[in-house]
């Protein structure tokens, strides 16, 4: 961009990198994925966005370029269509000449009432958040475990909703619980072969996904979550709660006896 | 759900729809709102309109040309982000209001001005192109060449000509990210007007803070702050990264900012500065955005909220008129933490743009039973003097008074009618002041 960098912002994360990381983000046009992509762009990483709307993807890639990404591109990928995963990741890998980090923030969300009353929507959400996400991760894992990946990292956004079965998130929480377990197992299985698996568990974060929902205390902002997640990616931290206070909140909720969980509404 | 402006009065029962896709959410709503920093009811829907679109999530940079400084971005892109992304590269917005928590769309809608108005005019002078969703649903691009009437009416048009979706703005080069500030105590209002005038020739940025409670011989005493971007050899070597804001997590009791507290604050502030001019190198946020240091400072006025009143009094006879205006305010004894005085330059291209050559005064007034009377009285004075008020601040002006101070109103309403015959796009303010 021909920019003078006489004064630069403090680098984010604990590690100041010499080499631009090659990162693929599924869901990077919105919410926490957008914030995280921007943070990586601002330190000069190479980013390829995956998503299903070419117009939105192109605009978001332009945004990342303007914010300092050394490369920002995109490839079409719909989490609802697993047979497209291999092609999309191959394209991304070609664009970036290899992949070091794959981030998945895409997922479906609906309220408990909506899911109880609409079986099609329920099936869609269960399939997307669990089955399809895992299928995507498996393809991503293959790319990451190829020679040439530097600190290969798979970073997937699960949720605190997966930590305990709770009234308002029975289905959504179940998919996230399954996803969290998958990521945990993946970490156990492949850590010795150099794969870093990061399970991000956001609490309530103000994004378009949560727009219109009543806001609980300790709600977080996407930019703060992004800083925390990027630090975890750089360090290879396996489980990240964001904002951090949710680790404590969930620790308490996990300890509450069933009798109480049946009575309270969270 | 109650939705309010920054002054927290009035409040309407409505809710914001937030999305990254501003184009989609503006299709069936009467108004788009940015970060909600308009003080009164400019960014509130009219009574009976249950939802407004909110732009802050639509905040992408679509293009930046480092050769020309042209920035093309979505309307929700904020000055807070612009500071972080562009100041380290030696670029900044050519015009900034007194807070960085505003969106580009909001800046265009209010045609904001800043401490450099005498030199660089309003933000509208630096906007080259806008993309709007107009009332019939179409998306229209306008500029000085293309649909110029719509373009000019949108600068300062309070979002009433269409939903502002994208903005192209020419950024300014800055020699360093630091500011050289000169501060000086000013003993009274006449001296203030003189010093603003002489300082304007020397400094690109000037602003005065007035002790609104001082009377008699010291009526209008205060502090003059002048500034310019530091040259590289004067600047610190580090980047002045933004500090996080201190939140005000709850409403302070309404009585806390009472006259005694405000008097003490004002006196202490006045004496913090030396009588003779003194130069220092400061962080841009402390010069441009002193109030942003406290997150929700509007809560300081308690649950009842406050109004901000800002008017401009024209050049001719300005010494007498500013003094008379200050006497009206002082006579009412209403506490104002901050009164701000600033000389304005030429009127801009915006059809309803606020500034005109003269002196602008802005102040906070805690809201109570007599606030309406005080605003009416100030408005009558402003009309007599041929001045006008700033819609981004206004909550209480009466329709007849606004019409009397705004000969350009018919021109604006003609353009609005041409693009929105049914009055689909409207705000609480437009219904209050224009009837639709």
Strand order of the biggest β-sheet of chain A: 3-2-1-4-5-6-7
* Oligomeric state, counting identical vs distinct chains: heterodimer
Report strand % of chain B: 15-25%
Q: Tell me the total number of β-strands of chain A.
A: 7
Q: Assign the CATH class of the largest domain in chain B.
A: Alpha Beta
Topology order of chain A in helix (H) and strand (E) letters: EHEHEHEHHEHEHEHH
Classify the secondary structure makeup of chain A into a structural class: alpha/beta
CATH architecture type of the largest domain in chain B: 2-Layer Sandwich
User: What is the overall silhouette of chain B?
Assistant: globular
Q: In what order do the strands lie side by side in the largest sheet of chain B?
A: 16-13-15-14-18-19-17-20
User: What's the helical proportion of residues of chain A?
Assistant: 40-55%
The end-to-end distance of chain B, rounded to whole angstroms, is 23 Å
Please describe the biggest sheet of chain B, giving its number of strands, its sense, and whether it closes into a barrel.
8 strands, antiparallel
Mean pLDDT of chain B: 94
């Amino acid at each position: 961009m021909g920019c003078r960098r006489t004064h630069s912002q403090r680098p984010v994360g604990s590690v100041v990198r010499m080499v631009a990381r090659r990162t693929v983000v599924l869901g990077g046009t919105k919410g926490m994925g957008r914030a995280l992509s921007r943070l990586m762009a601002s330190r000069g990483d190479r980013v390829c966005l995956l998503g299903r709307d070419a117009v939105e993807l192109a605009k978001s890639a332009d945004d990342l370029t303007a914010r300092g990404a050394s490369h920002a591109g995109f490839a079409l990928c719909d989490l609802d269509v697993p047979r497209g995963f291999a092609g999309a990741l191959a394209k991304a890998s070609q664009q970036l000449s290899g992949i070091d980090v794959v981030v998945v923030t895409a997922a479906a969300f609906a309220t408990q009432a909506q899911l109880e009353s609409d079986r099609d929507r329920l099936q869609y959400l269960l399939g997307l958040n669990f089955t399809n996400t895992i299928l995507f991760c498996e393809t991503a894992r293959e790319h990451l475990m190829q020679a040439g990946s530097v600190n290969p990292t798979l970073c997937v956004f699960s949720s605190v909703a997966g930590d305990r079965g709770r009234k308002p998130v029975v289905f959504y929480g179940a998919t996230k619980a399954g996803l969290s377990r998958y990521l945990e197992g993946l970490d156990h299985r492949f850590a010795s072969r150099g794969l870093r698996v990061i399970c991000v568990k956001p609490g309530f974060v103000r994004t378009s996904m949560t727009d219109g929902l009543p806001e609980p205390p300790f709600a977080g902002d996407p930019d703060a979550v992004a800083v925390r997640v990027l630090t975890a990616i750089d360090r290879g931290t396996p489980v990240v709660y964001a904002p951090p206070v949710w680790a404590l909140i969930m620790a308490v909720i996990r300890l509450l006896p069933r009798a109480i969980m049946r009575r309270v509404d969270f | 759900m109650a939705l309010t402006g920054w002054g927290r009065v009035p409040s309407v029962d409505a809710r914001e729809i937030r999305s990254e896709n501003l184009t989609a959410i503006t299709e069936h709503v009467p108004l788009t709102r940015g970060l909600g920093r308009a003080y009164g009811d400019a960014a509130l829907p009219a009574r009976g309109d249950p939802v407004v679109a909110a732009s802050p999530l639509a905040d992408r940079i679509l293009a930046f040309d480092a050769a020309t400084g042209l920035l093309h971005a979505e309307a929700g892109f904020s000055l807070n982000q612009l500071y972080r992304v562009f100041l380290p590269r030696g670029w900044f917005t050519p015009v900034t209001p007194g807070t960085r928590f505003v969106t580009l769309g909001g800046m265009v809608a209010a045609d904001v001005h800043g401490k450099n108005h005498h030199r660089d005019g309003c933000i509208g002078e630096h906007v080259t192109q806008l993309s709007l969703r107009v009332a019939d649903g179409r998306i229209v691009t306008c500029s000085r060449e293309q649909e110029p009437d719509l373009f000019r009416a949108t600068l300062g048009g309070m979002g009433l000509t269409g939903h502002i979706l994208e903005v192209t703005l020419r950024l300014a080069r800055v020699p360093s990210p630091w500011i050289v500030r000169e501060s000086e105590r000013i003993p009274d209002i006449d001296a203030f007007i003189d010093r603003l005038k002489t300082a304007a020739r020397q400094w690109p940025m000037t602003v005065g803070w007035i002790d609104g409670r001082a009377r008699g011989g010291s009526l209008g005493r205060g502090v003059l702050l002048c500034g310019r971007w530091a040259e590289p050899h004067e600047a610190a070597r580090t980047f002045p990264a933004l500090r996080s804001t201190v939140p005000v997590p709850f409403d302070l009791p309404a009585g806390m900012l009472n006259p005694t507290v405000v008097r003490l604050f004002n006196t202490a502030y006045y004496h913090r500065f030396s009588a003779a001019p003194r130069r220092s190198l400061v962080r841009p946020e402390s010069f441009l955005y002193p109030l942003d240091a406290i997150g929700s400072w509007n809560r300081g006025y308690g649950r009842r909220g406050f109004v901000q009143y800002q008017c401009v009094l024209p050049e001719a006879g300005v010494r007498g008129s500013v003094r008379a205006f200050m006497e009206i305010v002082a006579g009412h004894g209403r506490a104002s933490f901050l009164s701000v005085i600033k000389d304005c330059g030429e009127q801009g291209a915006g059809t309803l743009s606020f500034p005109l050559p003269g002196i602008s005064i802005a102040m906070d007034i805690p809201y109570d039973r007599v606030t309406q009377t005080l605003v009416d009285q100030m408005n009558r004075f402003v009309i007599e003097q041929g001045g006008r008020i700033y819609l981004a601040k206004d909550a209480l002006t009466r329709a007849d008074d606004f019409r009397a101070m705004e000969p350009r109103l018919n021109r604006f309403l003609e353009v609005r009618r041409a693009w929105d015959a049914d009055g689909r796009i409207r705000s609480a303010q437009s219904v209050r002041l224009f009837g639709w």
